[in-house]
Structures are given as structure tokens and as C-alpha cells.
Amino acid sequence: MKLTAENMDLKLRHTFTIARSSSDYANNVLLRVRDGKHEGLGEAAPQRYYGQNQDGCRRTLERMAPFLKDPDPFDLERVLDGLAKKFPKEPSARAAVDLALHDLIGQKTGLPLWKYWGLDRAKTPQTSFTIGIDTLEKVRAKVEEAQRFPVLKIKLGVQGDMEIIKEVRKLCPKKTLRVDANCGWSVKDAIAKAKILEKLGIEFIEQPVPPGQNAKLKRIQEKIGLPLMADESSLVPEDLPPLRGCVKCINIKLVKCGGLRAALKMVHTARSCGFKIMVGCMIESSVLITAAAQLTPLVDYADLDGNILISDDPYDGVKLDKHAKLLLPDRPGLGVRAR
């Protein structure tokens, strides 16, 4: 198999702000893996928060090429386990390879990935749409643009964030609202704000405190009526058992866990721990978003709007119906194609 990687810069429709950063572009990497007449696509979304960047990710993918020279795409366990041992701190790059191999499997079998796995695509959930941190005036405009979405995820974690969520609830009295603090609160803040959020009818709170602080998550969860969801605290399958009693839900992201194979392990581990599950994303093109959507018949929630937040998605893949329910493509593999 032949591997080629190239930079893919994705322009956002609006400056995207969360509790710890702002951005106008997502600097991702597109991967192509060719095996004879078939080509599989993958995508990496490297994150500064984890010490990753675009050029480093691309170089890592190029260093992975010798590991793909001889194996066929069905040799997933050996290839991906080998890459995990050799490149343990590069989950986004490994995810790109994982996606490309799964795409190749679909191309070779002629089956969409969801069908290859034997899943029922009628069971996909609605996706939420994310409203980033901004001025109240701009938040109002973003909410107006998001009229078609019945579920909104509101980024919080900054001073004055209760005013933001109160304004959104006033604008959307009947919509399902979720909040994500992106590690921006203390325990005291989280408990106090949860009381307000509960009165506003919020569905759940995502990652109020930084990772590595499970005891704090447990203290918060025991004091509030809303479910907590782990994100930065639930990167890989091994993170999940220690979270029992600390949160009610976990978020799975392909670029954090290392791809679809690891994500499937997280689904099974989460169910054994009694967690509800969301599949989420970073700012990504339809390559990564469509790959993640293949998992959604197995989960409770989806937050797969990264391709909607950009203005120049180079690929076409998963669609949404009028209620923002995910519609998986019939095409083989991931089911994506260039626009």
C-alpha cells in the first residue's frame, strides 16, 4: 500500500471560541492510502491542547508509510496495534490511518462501513449544533443561523457564561440545550452553575473541570441533578472504568482515541460501565465526520457538526434530514467523495 499525506486547511464560517482558545482555521491533514485500484481516505485533526500540529502530524504520517508497505487493509489489528506502540502520542495521525484502512475495506467488499459492521442506520441520532463563546449579539446571530437544529450545544467556561446560556434559552424555549465548559470551571463554580442550568432545562454538562481530576468530577456529580459527561477525561478505553461514579456519560472522538477500531472498544467498555455515549468531533471535514457517523447507531447522542462549521468542506459524505438526524451514505467504505 502507498501512503500520501497533504495539508488541508479548513476555513471556519465564524471565529470559533471555547474556554481555552479561539480559531479561524482548522489545520488538518488529508491522508490517502492506495492499494491497487482502490484508494482509502483518512483525516487527522491535530490539536494544540495535546501538543500536536499540522506539520508534525503530516511528518508522522509519512514516517508511518513503511508500516503499511506490505499488509492488506484487513490486517487491522496487527497494523494499528503496531502503530500504537510505535507512535503512542500521535492518536490523530493513527486515526487517519485507521480511517483509510476501513475505507479500503469497504471499497474492496463493496459495502458501506455501517453495513459491513451489521448496524441499523435507521438508529442514528440527531446531531447537535455548536454555538461557540461570543458576545451576546453574535450569539443571537449564531442561534438564528442554527434555526434548523433542534439540539444546540453551547460552549461555556468563561466569566459571564450564565448570561450566554440564559439568552440562548430565551431565544430557544423548546430546543434541547447541552453545555460544554471545556475544563473552564472549578468545583464550586460547577455546582453553583449546575443549579441555574437545571432550572433552564439543560440536558447535560460536559467536562466542567480539567482532565486527571476524577475525584472533582465525582464531587460535582454527587451534588447536582444534571448528568455530567466526560470528554477530555475520556480519551481512550482505559480511561473509562475509573470514571464510574464520577460521570453519567462519555464523549468519544476519533482523533483522541486513535480511530474507529479504538472507538468501537470505547463503545463496548462504556456500555459495560453503564455510561451513556456521545460521538463527538473537532473542526473536521466530511471525511472524519462521516467516519464518526458510522458509529452512531450504537450510541445515545451525536455532536457531529464540525463539517457544518466550515465554509469550504472539500468532501461530501453524511447528510442530515430536516430534523438534523444523521443519514449515512450508501457508497462503499466511509462513503465520502470529493465535491
Key phrases:
three-stranded antiparallel β-sheet, globular, single chain, 2 domains, TIM Barrel, Enolase-like, domain 1, 339 residues, 11 helices
Strand content: 15-25%
Number of helices: 11
* Poorly predicted tracts of residues: none
Helix-strand category:
alpha/beta
- The biggest beta sheet, please? 8 strands, parallel
Beta-strand segment tally: 15
What is the topology, as strand order, of the major beta sheet? 4-5-6-7-8-9-10-11
| CATH homology superfamily name of the largest domain | Enolase-like C-terminal domain
Shape: globular
Give the N-to-C terminal Cα separation: 25 Å
At the first level of CATH, what is the class of the largest domain?
A: Alpha Beta
Can you walk me through this structure?
The chain has helices spanning 54-64, 76-86, 91-109, 113-116, 136-145, 161-171, 187-199, 214-223, 254-257, 260-273, 286-293, and strands spanning 2-18, 21-35, 38-44, 129-131, 151-155, 176-180, 205-206, 228-230, 249-252, 276-279, 301-302, 315-316, 319-320, 326-327, 337-338. It starts with a strand and ends with a strand. β7 (205-206), α8 and β8 form a beta-alpha-beta unit. It is an alpha/beta fold and 339 residues long.
